[in-house]
Amino acid sequence: MRGQYGKERPVAVPSFVDKVTLHVAGGSGGDGVASVHREKFKPLGGPDGGNGGNGGDVILQVGADVTTLIDYHHEPHRRGTNGAPGAGSNRSGSNGEDLVLRVPDGTVVKDASGEVLADLIGPGTELVIAAGGRGGLGNAALASSKRKAPGFALKGEPGDELTITLELKVVADVGLIGFPSAGKSSLIAALSRARPKIADYPFTTLVPNLGVVTAGSTTFTVADVPGLIEGASEGRGLGHDFLRHVERCAALVHVIDCATVDPGRDPLSDLDVIEAELKAYAEATGSDLLDRPRLVALNKTDVPDAKEIAGFVRDELEARGLDVYDVSAASHAGLRELSFAMAEIVASRRAETPVAEVTRIVLRPKAEAGVGREFTIDQVNGQWIVRGEKPKRWVRQTDFANDEAVGFLADRLNRLGVEDELLKRGARAGDDVVIGDEDNAVVFDFDPQIPAGAEVLGRRGEDLRIDQSDRRTNVQRREELAARRAHEAEIREARESGRPESSAATPDWTFPEDDPALDGDDSDEDRR
Ligand SMILES: Nc1nc2c(ncn2[C@@H]2O[C@H](COP(=O)(O)OP(=O)(O)OP(=O)(O)O)[C@@H](O)[C@H]2O)c(=O)[nH]1
Ligand SMILES: [Mg+2]
């Protein structure tokens, strides 16, 4: 819509949004880089590729001054900033910035299936809803004594990505409940500075209004929710949706219209209808709403007939154990007593409940492979499916265009015991081994004979993976070295004396000079 001067005219928008669907994604981690230090007269320096920065998280944070979710209604896609890639000369990429999404107190976070992930209460409370991806290691960080100049780097990982719904449950101390047009909005307007819409037709209030009331030394909040009618708990009228707003309240006030001219309605039956709705709601949702103390405000007593009706029902209500107040939102009669009664309940409830501490909630991915295990292997349709956080992550970090990087992945998987387990389970060479997310899986040919890493390939005839399991001590190494020297001397002697060397040519042991099992650094790169 364009106004007179071509400017955007403000479009009417709902001012209170209490339920939104949001798509959140952590920033991607930056790629590590493979680079070799270059200097004059030193053409082949060491690896100096820096690490990629971590992607930024998406964080939900309760803000004391935030009252609606409307911003997310307008912009439902949010993501953290990506980490920057590493660079040569050991320069790390910068980390992506976290994206902090401020939400109102009382925001319930659910996943796409409707499962509650968190209930965010108390200003400052935070939830890391989508973690950023880790940056990949550069080749400098991947170098080790067995892999002096890696020609590859790890890729940054994508951040978590998920669809959530945010639902606002008003966190108020006192909830006003009652039939449409009972005068709930009028009452909150008379008690506080809230200025809700008031009209003589039902369902004037469509979303809750909050007001702040001070009585004596207690300051508390009062929520005016949309009118309830019979069947509300089954979705009639405005339905379930707003009953959840009174769930958090310490006390409920029945606002009863004593001036109604509707046939078939009177204060007692109105109260019964509302109570039945609360009960049905509590049963359907498992809420403990029925435990809340109740007050009764017999409203509109400025109307003579209404004052009389209020007098008739008072005894009956008190006999039910209820605290009853004659009030008039119009003349403000009885409001002082009512507000002090509310304050008293609120104060005693506050004294019982300790102040909620500011919490930071971090959702960790559930251990996919089960407790205490790094991975699981299942056989499905003739394929071997390897599941586990680490294998999945390592696959994401691998640059499959680089053979050395693929070898490094195979090395890591073997160190974790994947190959051993596959052999144990009866996998044969040529079988498909699937690792990774369903839609992002990588299929390998199982080939247990081929040495894993590119550098491992450099030493022909040795299967280093066998040696890895039996770590040798330095004493053993020295002994083996001495044995090898002796053996070489034997061969030399044999050559010099013209004897055939065949008998001495194949020692029955191997001596990798650079045994990967002796590198203490492997665990560190595996943890990334
Ligand atoms: N005479 C009189 N009229 C009142 C009083 N309180 C509210 N009303 C009138 O009752 C009508 C309904 O008032 P609201 O405050 O909008 O009622 P509500 O309970 O918020 O209604 P919904 O939002 O539709 O559920 C309006 O016309 C008010 O002016 C009162 O104390 N005395
Ligand atoms: Mg209202």
Automatic annotation (TrEMBL):
Q: Which CDD domains match?
A: Obg
The main enzyme category here is: hydrolase
Per the record, the GO terms for biological process are: ribosome biogenesis
Which InterPro entries does the record cross-reference, listed alphabetically?
Answer: G_OBG, GTP-bd, GTP-bd_Obg/CgtA, GTP-bd_prot_GTP1/OBG_C_sf, GTP1-OBG_CS, GTP1_OBG_dom, GTP1_OBG_dom_sf, OBG_GTPase
Cell compartment(s), UniProt: Cytoplasm
What range does the record give for the signal peptide? none
Q: Where is the composition biased (Basic and acidic residues)?
A: 468-499
Keyword Protease on this protein? no
Q: Enumerate the residues binding GTP.
A: 178-185, 203-207, 224-227, 299-302, 328-330
Q: Where is this region: Disordered?
A: 75-99, 468-528
Cofactor section: Mg(2+)
Residue positions annotated to bind Mg(2+) are 185, 205
Domain of life assignment: Bacteria
Keywords assigned:
Cytoplasm, GTP-binding, Hydrolase, Magnesium, Metal-binding, Nucleotide-binding
Per the UniProt record, which EC number(s) apply here? 3.6.5.-
One Gene Ontology cellular component term attached to this UniProt record is: cytoplasm
Where along the chain is composition biased (Acidic residues)? 511-528
Q: Tell me the GO molecular function terms.
A: GTP binding; GTPase activity; magnesium ion binding
Magnesium is among the record's keywords: yes
Family, as annotated: Belongs to the TRAFAC class OBG-HflX-like GTPase superfamily. OBG GTPase family.
Function of this protein?
Answer: An essential GTPase which binds GTP, GDP and possibly (p)ppGpp with moderate affinity, with high nucleotide exchange rates and a fairly low GTP hydrolysis rate. Plays a role in control of the cell cycle, stress response, ribosome biogenesis and in those bacteria that undergo differentiation, in morphogenesis control.
Q: Which HAMAP family match?
A: GTPase_Obg
Oligomeric state and interaction partners are given as: Monomer.
Cited NCBIfam families:
Obg_CgtA, Obg_CgtA_exten, PRK12296.1, PRK12297.1, PRK12299.1
Q: State what protein this is by name.
A: GTPase Obg
**Gene name for this UniProt entry:** obgE
